[in-house]
Structures are given as C-alpha cells and as structure tokens.
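Aim 2, interim progress. The first record below pairs a target sequence with its structure tokens.
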Amino acid sequence: MTNSSAPEEPKYWVKSVARAADILEALAAPAPGSGMSVTEVGQTCGISKSAAFGMLQTLRAYGLVSDDGEGMNRRYRLGMSLARLGDRARSQVSLRGVAQPVLRELTRTTGMASRLALPEDGHAVVVDQVELDQRVRLDLRMGQRELPHCTGLGKALLSALPQTEAASIVERFGLPRRTARTITDPATFLSHLRDIARVGYAVDDEEDAEGIICIGSPVLDDQGVCAGAVSITGLKLGLPAWRYQELGGQVRDAAHRISRALGWDGEQPHPGDETSGAIRS
C-alpha cells in the first residue's frame, strides 16, 4: 500500500521522487537489522517489483540505501549517507529562526509577551522575545539567567530532565524564596515537576515576582532531547483559574510546533521520564 501520511499532490509533483521518498519511509519502519526484500518494498509502496528494484538500485548508488545478501535473501536498509545528510540538516536549523514566527503568533493569540530560552548550567537564559505593544513594559530579562525553580522557563527545562538530574540541580542551587508563593520544599518541588511533565507546561503563578504570571513548555529536538523552552509572561490581574489551563495548552502547542520543526516526531520518551535523554546544554 502507499504511504498514507503522504501529502496531497501539489501542482509541481515528480512521481519518481515521491516514490523514492516512500521507499525511504518504508525502509525506516522495520526493526534495526531486519531490512526488507524488494518484494516487500514493492508491496508496501504500491509499486511493481521491477520498479521497486530500479528505485532501490538508484538510491543505493547514492548511499541512501544499503543491501546485503544474494538473490531471494537480499535485504535492503537505509544507507549511511542519510546520517550525514541528517547531521547537515541539523546544523542548518536555527532554533531562534524556527521559534521566532511561533513566538509572534503566540503573543498575538494570548495577548502576552513570549520568550525563548536555552538551558545553561541548570538555569534558563532568555535568547529571544516578542513584546506587547503597550505602555506597561515587563522586564523580560533578555540574555539573563532565570532561576530554575520559580520561573515558567526554568521549571519547563527542569521538567525535561530525569528526576535524579533535576534533584541534583535542586540540591546544587537550592530553592531560595522569591515571593510568598515560591516552592521551597525539595520533595514538594520534585512532585511539582512530575505534574509539569505530565501536562506538558509549567506555571509560575507569582512565584518569581508578585503580580506576574509566566507559563513555559520545553522544546525537544529530533532525538527527544530538550533544546530549550518557550513561555508567555504577563500581569496576573485576577486571571481566572480556567484561563491558566487554556494558556498552558497554547504554550504547549507552540513548543510542539517548534519541536516538530527541529525533527521531533512525538514518539520519544516523555520529558521527565527516567529513561528519557538528558537536557542539552
């Protein structure tokens, strides 16, 4: 059968290239080391055995497909040239470039300032922001470190770590009180991180500064590793409880959009699982 996730044919569509892409997607599906026969490739992609063989040999010549065995036992797999191209693709992707239009949309839809932060030595460092065009200006701390335990960005980044690593950061930097609402008990805070990992976003409800709310969510790369976090910041002003959940969902969706642009497919272990990858610094 053909690839059900393939896009609809645009005006300019080269069927042979589409078939080659379908073949690469098909070869990505089997378990490591198993490979596929030419007959299986043809059946999966909805093309004849001869057409599949020709495509496979062409892709093999470019190192995009590899094979082993002889005759009926020959099996085809993805070629190592794809790894080289993948590395090149990653190096050409700018997190800030990918995030900037998403931040602008997030600010437009939520009515709050939005920010992008990178992890650095257990803290969040703001590297980009989209402000609101209004008289009340918030201190968005561009280029500054944010505490990991009481800010939306910091808590989002910590939630993407295994609990043992998050606990190590808490032990190293402590949980200094910033306001009356700051969580200062380690056990309570680590439980709080588990809740954040479950819902996908962190809420700083006047925990860093009185009257200010910040909601953050982690951004993942193609390996499921946390590459940064996005957030929205604004004045609390009697914000109703139901609005927190709505805004949290919008921030989480924005983070997922950026993550997918970085190659995340949504199938890696959930951030915060003990089996998930460490945060990228």
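The second target in this work package is listed in the same format:
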Amino acid sequence: MSSQAMAGATTATPVRVAVTVLAGDARLAGEVVASLNVRRDAGVQVAEHDDADVVVVLAELVTDAVVDELAAWERAGQRIVLVAGPLRERYLPRLFGAGVVSVLPYRDVNAGQVMRAVLASSAGRAVVPDVLVRWLVDEVRSSQYDLLVSQGMLAGGLTEREVEVLRRLAEGYDTSRIASELNYSERTIKKIIQDVMSRLRLRNRAHAVSYAMRVGAI
C-alpha cells in the first residue's frame, strides 16, 4: 500500500484533526483526500503518517501482510479507520490491538462515509458494524470469565466455595448442616455468607441465593 497525501493552501483555522490516507486504490484514495481537504474549514488537514491523529487505511483485501503492516505502523494515540473487505475473525485481535477503532465495509463506501468515521474516531467514538460489535462483546465476556477463573472465581464473581455454600442454602440447608457437609465450622460458613452479601451488596441470604441463580452459578 502507498501513502496518498495532498497539501493545500494555508488556512487560519487551527488544525484539530490531522489525517493521512494509506491505500492501494488510487481512485478511492484521491476521493477521500479531496473530501478531507474540503473540510479544512472544520480543522481537518491531510498530514504525513507520523504526524496524523487518524490514519485511514483502504484495503479491499485484508491479508496477513496487511495486518503485519498495520501492527508495524502503530503509534501511541493514533486512531485507525479501516475500510476493508470481509475480515477474518483471526485478524480482529491484532487489528484492534494495532489501533483500529472504526471499520467500514469497502464495498460501496464513499468519501462522505469515510469523513464521518474520521471525525467520529478523532472524537473518541467508534464506527463499527453490528457483527463486530457482537464479536467485541463476546471477547470482553470471555476475558472477564478467564480473569475470574484465574482468580478462583466463577460466574457472578463468586468463588467455588461460596457457590457450594449458596447451593446448599438454595436446597434449604441450615448453617449447621452446611458446615457439617463441607467440613467447616459454623462460624466459617456464616463468614462466607456475610462476605458474599457485603461484597455484592446483597440484602440477605435469600437475595444471595437469588443472585447466584440469576448469574448461573447454581
């Protein structure tokens, strides 16, 4: 991919968003750059890659080489608007890790859509297709689960021992019987229940059992 940039007349408007366009499609790149130049009155200006706040990458086909190149371009604080064809799921972690914040479909995209994504990305927002939003949500959930498991916790932030106690409470066991079954003292069982209610701000034992059932822990 080659860099496309056009310098225009000096404007008195302070530059708020410096943008560079990287593409293999000269026609689309030219349209995007022209659209960016039209927005100079709004503080948008085409810049060199190292000086850009937002990098627009136009890639009809995303390959391993493109992903590697994006990762190599990464600059702290830079945001990438990726205009691309269908993305393989295995590329997504590296693309977002490289600074991609907005993704537009390559097919039928126009310069106006790219401009809106540039302005949104520069303002800290993201323009992402629904299918990628779902992927990101699933990734966050998976990461949270892995973190809980690594800390000895299960669904809802409960430990395995807490789940065992709450499961028996749900079955109607009293403190004495739970202590006997789990080979703990009654004092320990009471403390486990109190810790759960305090940490998760639950009102009473029934509320704790209800919470464990709601999050799928029991």
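Residues 2-13 have pLDDT under 50 and may be disordered. This observation will shape the mutagenesis plan for the next reporting period.
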